[in-house]
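Handoff note, outgoing to incoming analyst
You'll be picking up this chain. Sequence as last confirmed:
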Amino acid sequence: MTPVNEMEIELKEPLVPVEEYLAAGIHIGTQQKSEDMKKFIYRVRGDGLYILDIRETDARIKTVAKFLNQYEAPDVLIVTSRQYGQYPAKKFADTIGAMSATGRFIPGLLTNPVLDGYIEPKVIVVTDPIGDAQVINEAVQCGIPVVALCDTNNMTKFVDLVIPTNNKGRKALSMIYFLLTREMLHLRGISTALTLEDFESEI
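Most recent structure output, in case you need it:
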């Protein structure tokens, strides 16, 4: 099945053309779906993979960019334990002036004031609620809102804002973080020469 036939929909003023979303594979979910993510699923493929609705993804990136821009950049924390998320997440954080914690998240970073490196962010962005469960638990304890990139199998109980996307693929994660960066800078009135390639880590 060709990507073009996978989702025959049109987007109104999309951040990128539909073809670019499909090429990055942001719509390719898993073979599991959670009740929480059902509303973001477009259909199920013949091989059992659930396909996310990129209209929802596109709209949520715009919503999240507006939401994050309400905060001072240094108060935003971007977290990812996923290998493919680390490079684009850090690039996103560095470009918008946010904090980042990539790799293994140190328990107590948000809840233990005596811990070396203790931080007090006002909002958190995570790449995967499963891999980043520790930081979500701490954010909930501290009353910090959580934005999460969620795949078809994720639970969103402690997530305040969901971006439905393939949160496992290298290209998909690069695309999401690139578009978030570009949209946030655009809302701030800043033009950027950054491209998707700038967010792609080496394989």
